[in-house]
TrEMBL record:
PANTHER family: PROLINE-RICH ANTIGEN HOMOLOG-RELATED (PTHR36115)
Name assigned to this protein: RDD domain-containing protein
Naturally occurring in which organism (per UniProt): Photobacterium profundum (strain SS9)
Membrane-spanning ranges: 7-28, 34-54, 108-129, 165-182
Keywords: Cell membrane, Membrane, Transmembrane, Transmembrane helix
Pfam families: RDD (PF06271)
Predominant place of localization: membrane
Length: 303
């Protein structure tokens, strides 16, 4: 019921985001990831007000499914606590996937971001799924709140199983260890070359942010011989500031950067450049993409 209510609320907020996107698309594209603050602010006001005493602890989704937010005394919570409670819930999802191109800033933020995004995200999901006694997730545990049946005057709740708390602690500890591991991996020569390629592509005026990955895909045939084919690739996803996702010349230029800065790319089967244009404001997003595929040898000899 709780997830169902969240789904209904998500549809309502998505409708608001869709309308805003129709009116302010160019602005959202221009401000990039800062647009997430718009969706975060709208959601914060919606959930902060509706889950508080102002609306009897019920968003529109909770009203539809007859549940509400209360404290341990079975009373609805203050608006300030409701705002804080939603902030804890929303931060991991709002920060997830954010693009930071400033290398110095990344080095400062990778630990707190991993703690908030990885630790917070998985702790919230774990408790939603596994805490079947009190049904409290991370934000409920922090602020002492419960989501209960609104048609029952007073409900007794159990005590959270202590190993759940241990799992949450472990998730947050792991979230601190992950940046240590990834920073060590980044010092490996092949990763350093990929990072160098990414920086060069990010310097293009038409590109707002790019990611570069190297890998392989395996295709298994359904015929009796059951043959498998492995394709190695370098993949570039470039977010661009203009709606030119079909611009093959730009895609080729980015592919040329790959073969000229990443020595291992010449041994790959293909170089895939995906041009992406659009915006994400948290409560609504709209993207247009087109993938351009090149053979590394076709890109040799260009500067």
């Amino acid at each position: 019921m709780r997830i169902g209510a969240l789904f209904i609320d998500g549809l309502i907020l998505s409708a608001v985001g869709f309308v805003l996107g129709l009116l302010l698309e160019s602005t959202f594209i221009e401000i990039g990831d800062w647009g997430r603050l718009i969706g975060f602010s709208i959601s914060l006001v919606y959930f902060g007000v509706m889950n508080s005493v102002v609306s009897n602890g019920q968003t529109l989704g909770k009203k539809a499914l007859n549940i509400k937010v209360v404290n341990s005394s079975n009373d609805t919570i203050s608006i300030s606590k409701s705002f804080a409670r939603y902030t804890v819930l929303a931060i991991p999802f709002s920060l997830n996937g954010i693009h930071i191109t400033n290398e110095a800033l990344v080095s400062y933020l990778m630990y707190p971001f991993s703690f908030l995004i990885f630790g917070g995200f998985f702790a919230i999901i774990y408790l939603y799924v596994c805490n079947r006694v009190t049904r409290q997730s991370l934000h409920d545990l922090i602020f002492g709140t419960y989501v209960v049946n609104s048609e029952v005057d007073h409900q007794k709740v159990g005590v959270i199983w202590k190993p759940h708390l241990l799992v949450v602690v472990i998730l947050f500890v792991v979230s601190i260890i992950i940046p240590i591991y990834t920073s060590q991996q980044a010092k490996v020569e092949s990763f350093e070359d990929l990072i160098s390629t990414q920086k060069t592509i990010n310097s293009f005026s038409a590109v707002t942010y790019a990611s570069v990955t190297s890998g392989s895909s395996i295709f298994a045939s359904t015929n009796e011989d059951s043959q498998t084919t492995t394709t190695t690739y370098v993949n570039v996803q470039a977010f661009i500031s203009e709606n030119n996702v079909a611009d093959e010349a730009l895609a080729r230029n980015l592919g040329e950067v790959v073969v000229n800065t990443y020595s291992e790319s010449i041994n790959k089967d293909v170089i895939k450049v995906t041009l992406t244009y659009g915006y994400d404001i948290g409560i609504w997003s709209q993207w247009f993409s087109q993938t351009h595929t090149f053979a590394p040898t076709d890109l040799l000899g260009f500067e």
